Structures are given as structure tokens and as C-alpha cells.
Amino acid sequence: MYAENGRHETIWGILRTFHYTDSLSLSDRFIFPKFDVNTNSSVELSPTGYRFLVDLFLKFDKDNDGGLNEEELNNLFIPTPGIPRLWQESQFPSSIVCNEEGYVSLQGWLAQWNLTTFLDHKTTLEYLAYLGFDEDSSVKALKVTKPRKLRQKQGAPKSGKTSLLELFLRGTYSDVYSPTIKPRICAKDIELRGGKQCYLILEELGELEPAILENKKKLDQCDVICYTYDSSDPESFQYLVELREKYSSLLDDIPSVFVALKADLDKQQQRSDVQPENYTRDLFLNSPLHICSAWTTSLHELFIQLVDAAKGPSTATPGLETEPETPDLENIKHLVMAGSAITLMAAVSVWIWRSSVQSSRA
Ligand SMILES: Nc1nc2c(ncn2[C@@H]2O[C@H](COP(=O)(O)OP(=O)(O)OP(=O)(O)O)[C@@H](O)[C@H]2O)c(=O)[nH]1
Ligand SMILES: [Mg+2]
Question: In terms of domain of life, where is this protein from (predicted)?
């Protein structure tokens, strides 16, 4: 009866009371259904998938405060082997927006699933199966995007990448500097011009940066590189110049956006062979956007530029002289979910890089 009513957590509650363990298992074909993805395509949640996740959230937010506290989250995950490993690796919930109490908000919950699906759709399929998405298969919760061009982000050490991530998620950042060692990833929806929304995935790779630059396959996952430097530090830009020189064959194919951070501090002449404005001009790219972590509108402008670069890669690819093209709106699947005011479209992933060698100098 409980199974028919979709009350999987109750069934598991009963089984656990009687000391059944996880070895009572679902068939592999059900947990890991076949799902083909073309190269250069990525996987996203379908409207049905989003709707299921919204309903799940609402069902388990028992106190109706718009956030899942630890107990509510644990209850939700009872039918599963626990919070996905991928979530633990991305330091969930620091990867998403939480409410004031630090509980997972609906906005953050959906962003986390969006991130999961982008990074490893098999985890999404597996968990939706545990959570009772569909008695036949969880594949209806997903969709494959059209093959797309590449996109991604990277920057000079100590230039303010982590602060940017913090601001993106929480609207504040810390004055205390601590270098990023382990990669940090976060996802959140942003509003574009005209009110459309999109999920932006930002990643700062920490010490993994050199390894990523040597891994073409990993590089392909990313949409835009955002090169960040500190406009108040005369040594900062040269780092980007050298890095781009060293890896030019890989980096030249990828849409790029240059950003000068810490615009609130005095701008210094960069001690590099070429000044940033000339460097970007020679690559037929926009001049570096001057951003200060405290100016929220300038930040928003940056996030929009990143999405534009992903949507119209030819306008943002180094060395490509092209007429500005209209972003491929076909690719932007604009969906409105029933029962919620959230509109969705393709996710854009952006990586922020730094070199461990350089950081020890910084
Ligand atoms: N004045 C000013 N300081 C900033 C701004 N953004 C970041 N900072 C400070 O700059 C320092 C470095 O910031 P992080 O965000 O940690 O830099 P990072 O690029 O992530 O550094 P690594 O991870 O070591 O490469 C911190 O002390 C921040 O508080 C800004 O817009 N203005
Ligand atoms: Mg950092």
C-alpha cells in the first residue's frame, strides 16, 4: 500500500526498524538505466525532473520554513545509501545558496541537482531511482543538450577568485585570505537580460589547475575561461600571459573573458610585456571588465558576459575576428515549471584556475 502511494520513506522506515540493511538492493538495471549522451553534449534535468525535485523538497520541508534542516534532509535521504558522494566532495551545502539558518533552500536544492546532473548524470539517475521518481525508469527526469561549443574560468593567484565565488553565492566575502588548495565548485541560478534564468556553475580548481590543463577531456567539460587578475598588483597580469603562452594550443579554442578584480584599489601599470587592454584587443576580445567585489551590479555584468560568451562562443574565442552574433537562443531551452516561479535554461560552467607555483610567490 505504501509503495503504491509512493511513500518509499515509510517502507524504509519499517525495514530499518526491523534491522534490514542496505543489502536489500534494487536491480542495477533500475538504478543505472541506459542513457546515451553524445560527445560535446551535456545532461540537464527535464521539466519533469525539476518538478519531482520541487515536490520532494516541499514534502520534506515539514516545518514549512523554506529550508531543509539536517533532520529533514536525513529523512529525505532515508531510501538512499546517504547523501551522494559527489555532494560530499563538493562540500555540500557550501556549494549552494542556503537560507539564514544555514538550511538548504529550494533555490539551492535545485542548483545542487543541476550541478550533480552536469557533473555526473548517473548519480542523478541513481538517486532519483532510490527516491521513487518513476516506477519504470528515472531517465524521463533528464534531457541531453544539443552538442555545444566549449566554454570555462581561470586566474592569477590571490586575484580574488574565491571572493568572487563567495559573492556569487552569498553576496559577501571575507577579508581574510586563505589560498584555495582543493577545487571549489558552486552553482546558482542567475537572471539574464529580459528576465530569463540560467544556472551558472563556477569552479575554482585550486592546485588541480596544472593537471586540468593537461587533460583535454576534462577541459572539454567547461564552457568559458574567465581569466582574472588583480589590477592593483603589477605582477598579476603577466601570470595570465605566461599561462596562455604555455598552453596556447588548448586555451585558444575556448571562449574567454578577461576580468580585472579589486577595482576599488588603485590601478597599477601591469609589469607585463603587453598591457591588458592591448592584449585582449589583439585577441579580438572585449577589454577586461573592471570589477570590485563590493559592486554587485558590476558582478552581475560579469556573470552575464560569461553566459554570453558561452552562448555565442565565436564572439569570445581568442583570435577569432567575427561580427557579433546573436546568441543561439535555440539552445536556451526556456522552461517554466508548474507550481513554482522558477524559469530555467541551459547551465553554463565556468572554471577558475590558479597555479600552485605562482601562489607561493604571491
Ligand atoms: N580590495 C579588495 N580586496 C579584495 C577584493 N576581492 C577579494 N579581495 C581580497 O583579496 C584577497 C584574495 O582573495 P581570494 O578570493 O582568496 O583570491 P584567490 O584568487 O581565490 O586566491 P588563490 O586561491 O590563492 O589563488 C582576500 O584577502 C580578499 O579579501 C576586491 O574586490 N577588493
Ligand atoms: Mg582562491
Answer: Eukaryota
Displacement of CA 151 from its chain's centroid (Å): 12
Q: What is the reported pLDDT for 10? A: 92
* Ligand located closest to 230 CA: 1
What is the rounded CA–CA span in Å between residue 88 and residue 198? 24
Ligand 1 atom closest to Cα of residue 178: 16
Q: What is the CATH number of domain 154-361?
A: 3.40.50.300
The arithmetic mean of pLDDT across residues 306-317, rounded, is 80
Amino acid symbol at 184: R
Q: Which residues contact 70 (CB under 8 A, 6 or more apart)?
A: none
Report pLDDT for 351. Answer: 56
Q: Using CA atoms, how far apart are residues 304 and 291, in angstroms rounded to an integer?
A: 13
The model's pLDDT over 89-101, given as tens digits with 9 standing for 90+, comes to 888 999 999 999 9
**Mean pLDDT, range 232-243, rounded to an integer:** 90
Number of H helices, E strands in the chain: 16, 13
Residues with CB under 5 Å of ion ligand 2 are 161-162, 180
Alpha-carbon Rg for the chain in angstroms = 22
Residue among 154, 172, 177 whose CB has most ligand 1 atoms within 8 A, to mutate: 177
Band (pLDDT 50/70/90 cuts) for residue 348 is low
Nine-digit cell string for 280: 585582449
The cell 516545518 sits on which residue? 63
Residue among 153, 154, 158 whose CB has most ligand 1 atoms within 8 A, to mutate: 158
In the reported structure, the alpha carbon of residue 174 is separated from the centroid of ligand 1 by a whole-number distance in angstroms of: 8
Pick among 3.90.76.10, 3.40.50.1820, 3.30.2020.10, 1.10.238.10: CATH of 8-34+41-144: 1.10.238.10
